[in-house]
Amino acid sequence: MVRTEAPEDAYTAEPFLPGRLTLGGLREAAAGCRGCPLHRDATQTVFGAGAEGARVMLVGEQPGDQEDRQGRPFVGPAGRLLDRALAEAGIDPGEAYVTNAVKHFKFARSGPGKRRIHKAPSLREMTACGPWLAAELAVVEPELVVVLGATAGKALLGSSFRVGRVRGTVLEEEIHGRPRRLVPTVHPSSVLRADDREAAYRGLVGDLEVAARVLS
Question: What pLDDT, on the 0 to 100 scale, is given for residue 5?
Answer without folding.
Answer: 64
